[in-house]
Amino acid sequence: MAKLNPNEVEQQCQRWKTTLIGYVLGGNPSFKEMLKFVYGVWNLVTTHTVFLHDDGYFIFRFESVKDKNLIVQNGPYTFNSRPMVLKDCDPDFQIQNESMRIVPVWVNLPGLPVQCWAEENLGRIASLLGKPICTDKLTTECERISYARILVEMDITQPLPEEILIKKPDGRSWMQRVDFEWKPKFCLDCNKFGHSTGECQ
Question: Domain range for residue 68?
């Protein structure tokens, strides 16, 4: 058994901090097609490098963590009308272990009171829906107060809630409306995206 040097492992992890893993649900784009997409759609950041893994997913390396986060915050993205999943680079990532039922979805909370917009409170609210990933820049900096926008990893095989219950420290509560920028369709019969259960051809 070979025991790895922990310092070198940490150095390599730091090296990939500015990268994202990406794949297209229900699609298998070529390297050339993905390059065209990246340089055409992600032109809001400087130079980025694209790697194609033999297992069919891509790794995108950016100049900085700021650039990487900017790409995430400006999503969601589609590739040939299919949803594109982006997530932080994990050294242990394996595409065959990915649950295609858990996908990042942008959630809007219209009319959310501004006293709820602190990072921890937004995280608590988003946790009612799934695993919070980040907020967009306008939400983080409170530059658009008509709605809060949060990226959440959700199990799309479950019904997407239209409302969630939020309770204030004084004990008062209210039902908060939830809007989804994209409602993915997933078929439990064939485990594929693009249509709902019972709509298989």
Answer: 10-88
Q: Can you tell me whether residue 48 is helix, strand or coil? A: coil
Residue that is last in its domain, among 88, 115, 135: 88
- Tally Cβ neighbours within 10 Å of residue 179: 14
- In angstroms and rounded to an integer, the radius of gyration of the C-alpha atoms of the chain is 19
Residue 22 lies in a domain: yes
Please check whether residue 127 lies inside any domain of the structure. Answer: yes
Q: Give backbone dihedrals phi and psi of 187, rounded to 5 degrees, phi first.
A: -100, 120
User: Please, where are the H alpha helices in 6-159?
Assistant: 6-15, 31-41, 65-73, 119-126, 137-140
CATH number at residue 44: 3.30.70.330
Tell me the whole-structure pTM to 2 decimals. 0.65
Residues 149 and 112 in one domain: yes
Alpha-carbon distance of 134 to 163, in angstroms, equals 20
The identity of residue 72, as a single letter, is V
Chain centroid to Cα 21, Å, comes to 11
- Chunked in runs of 10, what are the mean pLDDT values of the chain (201 residues)? 82 81 83 90 82 84 90 83 79 61 85 92 94 88 92 84 92 94 71 63 63
Angle at the Cα of 75 from the Cα atoms of 47 and 31, rounded to 5 degrees: 50
Give the up-direction half-sphere exposure of residue 163: CA atoms within 13 A in the CB hemisphere. 6
Which residues lie below 8 Å from residue 117, measured CB to CB, with a gap of 6+? Answer: 139, 142, 145, 148
Query: Do residues 113 and 182 share a domain?
Result: yes
